Amino acid sequence: QVLLVQSGGGSVQTGGSLRLSCAASGDIRSVRFMAWFRQAPGKLREGVAEVNSTGGVTNYADSVKGRFTISRANAGNELDLQMDNLEPEDTAMYYCATTRSRSPRFIPASYEYWGQGTQVTVSS
């Protein structure tokens, strides 16, 4: 199994920046993709950003392209999400996740291990 512990998040005003981190431990050798998801009250969980095990493939939700950057560090033991130019619509609980799938396609059910979640709140 893979243990994911998140840190970061908080509250900022529109246009501000936040950085989320996710520390991974356990059987990380089997991980093929890591991702950030978010879920706002009353809405479905949606994929935000996704990166493969080498860092060579990244996918972003259209709503965050150009504003968010996903990256892996420490040989896959850390996953980060740099969020710039934040908007109120970005307000949600954010989760990091991992999967052994080579093609998870931003589907939450394709991801096997999840962090505990961290709140991001963006005010006007």
Detailed description of the structure:
The protein is mainly beta. It has strands at residues 2-8, 10-13, 18-26, 33-39, 46-52, 58-60, 68-73, 78-83, 92-99, 113-114, 118-123. The radius of gyration is 13 Å and the shape is globular. 31% of the residues are buried. The mean pLDDT is 96.
Per DSSP E runs of 2 or more residues, the count of β-strands stands at 11
Separation of termini?
40 Å
- Average per-residue pLDDT, rounded, comes to 96
Multimeric state: single chain
- Structural category is mainly beta
> Which strand-content bin applies to the residues?
over 45%
Helical stretch count?
A: 0
What is this structure, in a nutshell?
This protein has no helices and eleven strands.
Provide tags for this entry.
mainly beta, 7-stranded mixed β-sheet, 4-stranded antiparallel β-sheet, 11 strands, 0% helix, globular
How does the SSE layout of this entry go?
Layout: E1 2-8, E2 10-13, E3 18-26, E4 33-39, E5 46-52, E6 58-60, E7 68-73, E8 78-83, E9 92-99, E10 113-114, E11 118-123
